[in-house]
Amino acid sequence: MSTVDRKVDREAFERGLREAMPYTNIPTLLLLLHQFTGDDRWLAEPFQPERSRGLDDNDSGGLAPEIQRQVHEAAAEAIMGWYEGNPIAKPTLTGDELIKMMTVTEAEPIPADYASVMVDKLARYAGSASEPIEVKDGFRALIVGAGMSGVAAAIKLEQAGVPHVIVEKQDRAGGVWSSHRYPGAGVDTPGHLYSYTFAPGDWSMYFPLQEEIQGYFQRVAEESGVAERVRFGTECLSSRYDEETHTWHSTLRNPDGTEETLISNILITAVGTFTTPKRPAIPGLDTFEGPVVHTARWDSDVDLQGKRVAVIGNGASAMQLVPAIADTVGHLTVFQRSKQWAAPFEKFHKKVPEPLRFLLREVPHYEWLWRLRLSWIFDSAVYEALQKDPNWEHPERSMNAKNDRHRRFFIRYINEQLEDRPDLIPKVTPDFPPFGKRMLLDNGWYKALTRPDVTLIDEGVARIDGNRIYSSGGQEAEVDVLILATGYDVVRYLSPVELIGRDGVSIREAWDDIDSRAYLGTVVPGFPNFFMLYGPNTQLGHGGSFIFIVECQIDYVLSALRAMSENSIDVVECREDVYDKYNETIQAMHQNMIWSHPGMSTYFRNERGRIITQNPWTLADFWALTRSADLQSDYSTLEEKQKLERV
User: What is the pLDDT of residues 524-549, one digit of tens each?
Assistant: First the structure.
């Protein structure tokens, strides 16, 4: 994009540009200056930024105010030149150039294999679309779910010209962001990263809350035409593979309660994993004398005003909920079974200044380069800290020297936040390595615990009697309302749909109920022409936006469909040996990573000790693995199966 689509006149553009400069990110402006001018001086002293601390995106770059002023003035001049039609010195950045640019602005080495990912992301940001796929007459796919994954799949299938039907049991798009409405619900990833590569979000907050996130997915669904195609209020109850016709037969329950069978050549599930609430097995819970509400099934009619409220759990939902309701309730008691790490993030609950929103809308190159930086900081920078160093002298507390530095940083932060309540410090400071569980972000959690009307009981709940809750150590609290922030049944992937494959084997039988696994988190032997999005071992445990992972999975699905079309193949099925080797590989990788650390319990592992949710690959690795589906090495085709049967 070398010329600008002038949405505003010159005077208004220049005024908006000047107003935006004080709010910009200096490292991103340096990237833009190098691209727009081609001048290497913007990657040299005195303009070289300091390294980012933690998950901060380092707006000032650690540069002196006078140097920042020079960057602002030069960037404004370069952007105005672009607006007026001056060509960009480097309209297309190569992988080598991006590695050089990012290494300087991040003040740390960027791995060479990250180059291709950045080139691809910039192409996606600029509007690259899926290539057409020729399919046979009557061919169609069924997409189950219109949340983040389903909407993206429908957009990409439409671009490729693949006929499809998409069903969603809720009445609007957005998935969990439509159903999860507890106070304080929001993302712990920057909104500009928690966006499709092909659909930027004009976010009002750096870390948007539930309503705005749901609105984003709804807007994208509407503007892309997906919303018109979604059959809302329609639930997929079961899908069964028919071996004679090589099709999937899905039983749908319509909004009026009637059922129908929909036949498709391809089945794509996009049902997510944070769907089924996990209700703890606490004696007396079912007879609690008062309202009981789970964060995943929030009831806004429950009155919290001035009430004595107990929250069971201290994970991501609780950390968002507790600060959000602390001013409303009369007294709040938090039952904490285990400790959590929580990182500082200065921009939580902060609005994106209007001038900066103007810049992000009108100067796409700035937005694209900023998103590249955010991706590195949140998706990839911490990966090395998750690896086990066999020679590390403190394996009980950290994985390696870098992980130990993270630990010291987080402990300093906890001590600062609880300076006035030192009695709380040992209660909340974990004794396992940082990132061993989901890394949470502190949205006021620690400060909320210091309030006189908040009590932290650092023990699990043993039983409930009437409206009294007893901890495992004998502490008790009398409360009016009980809130369960106890998470989800994440190990049983695909639990919302009964899935039956070849030979009548269900997915639960294939997985022995809780031992979910897949090749690339996407395909499973015994389930031909079936693809799942957000499958086992796809979650980025080292942080960042999961959306790009799903886009990679969709690329893989499209590649498989294209290969089927080009080779006139009706059926593909993941080979058993490929599936087994892949899962053996990722579990071996996990044994040398943080999530196998014995010093903690985590939903990442099932009760048999297998890592179910986490993705052990770097972002660059997973991107490379999903670039194309290889029918010769990855799949058994229908023709191959027929040959084997004849033999």
Answer: 999 999 999 999 999 987 666 889 99
